[in-house]
């Protein structure tokens, strides 16, 4: 596991977590799962599908004297969970075991079991192209073609629609594309008007799994649509960052600086202000 794994904080910075740059990421779900567990001092808790220990460490911080055993199928995530023991000074109160919960057996007894299971039935949605995220949700990743995530989903209709959009780019799109094309930004290959069916995204770096979307005045009217679009793209393993057109036209330096931050840190947010 990379020594540069991003660190996030939850519970008002009381819990520090190293997490993987790709794959399943700790969210508020972990905080809620820990809060729902009625453990008391001296109890033993089993965390099934522990990841990097998000729920485990929230529970350990909230209830003194609890011991947590975490079961995690992915070695890379379990390795980070072990590092998080020291990071949160929880030595002796937590352990993490690499195993498939369907096969794992133990003679130990536990007072509570916590788990944040997939909430969609297998076969009712498209598995994430991210191997780590797909595995965390109990699936094999979608087969890749070409450069990877997003490629295999493009239909002929998607491709034709993308071509038409490229011919009608806005001034803001043209200006940002000038900064991203031909590997000008950190030597990364970006595509414009790239199909991630059923959507066409403004700019996409498949190598890093980053999507950049530009919003004009219409974003206010279609905020619910854009939110669902972002949720779908993130479920496919992408990180989505949005900018107002005005930011690109008047503050390109700030836009590129924010994008650099996305490359180095966890979760992107739009620049303040805008249209």
Top keywords for this entry?
275 residues, alpha/beta, four-stranded parallel β-sheet, four-stranded mixed β-sheet, 10 helices, elongated
Structural notes for this entry:
The protein is of the alpha/beta class. Helix content is 34%, strand content 19%. The strands form three sheets. A four-stranded parallel β-sheet has the order 5-4-3-6, with helices on one face. A four-stranded mixed β-sheet has the order 7-8-9-10, with helices on both faces. The chain has a two-stranded antiparallel sheet with strand order 1-2. The two termini are 41 Å apart. About 3% of the residues have low confidence.
Q: Summed up, what is this model?
A:
The protein is of the alpha/beta class and 275 residues long. It has helices at 28-36, 54-62, 75-87, 131-136, 156-166, 171-180, 218-221, 223-235, 245-250, 252-264; strands spanning 7-10, 15-18, 44-48, 67-72, 94-98, 112-115, 191-196, 199-205, 210-215, 239-244.
């Amino acid at each position: 596991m990379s020594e540069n794994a991003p660190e996030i904080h939850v519970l008002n910075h009381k819990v520090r977590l190293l997490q993987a740059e790709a794959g399943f990421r700790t969210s508020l779900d972990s905080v809620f799962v820990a809060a729902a567990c009625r453990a008391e001092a001296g109890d033993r808790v089993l965390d099934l599908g522990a990841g990097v220990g998000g729920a485990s460490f929230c529970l350990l911080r909230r209830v003194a004297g609890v011991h947590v055993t975490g079961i995690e199928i992915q070695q890379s995530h379990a390795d980070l969970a072990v590092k998080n023991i020291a990071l949160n000074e929880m030595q002796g109160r937590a352990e993490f075991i690499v195993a498939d919960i369907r096969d794992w057996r133990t003679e130990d007894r536990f007072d509570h079991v916590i788990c944040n299971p997939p909430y969609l039935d297998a076969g009712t949605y498209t598995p994430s192209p991210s191997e780590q995220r797909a595995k965390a949700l109990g699936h094999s990743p979608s087969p890749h073609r070409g450069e990877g995530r997003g490629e295999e989903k493009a239909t002929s209709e998607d491709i034709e629609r993308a071509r038409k959009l490229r011919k009608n780019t806005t001034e803001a799109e043209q200006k940002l594309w000038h900064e991203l094309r031909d590997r000008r930004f950190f030597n990364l290959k970006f595509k414009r008007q790239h199909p991630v069916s059923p959507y066409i995204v403004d700019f996409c770096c498949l190598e890093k799994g980053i999507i950049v979307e530009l919003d004009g005045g219409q974003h206010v009217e279609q905020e619910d649509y854009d939110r669902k679009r972002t949720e779908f793209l993130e479920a496919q393993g992408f990180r989505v960052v949005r900018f107002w057109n005005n930011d690109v036209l008047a503050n390109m330096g700030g836009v590129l600086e924010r994008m650099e931050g996305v490359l180095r840190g966890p979760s992107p947010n739009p620049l303040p202000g805008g249209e």
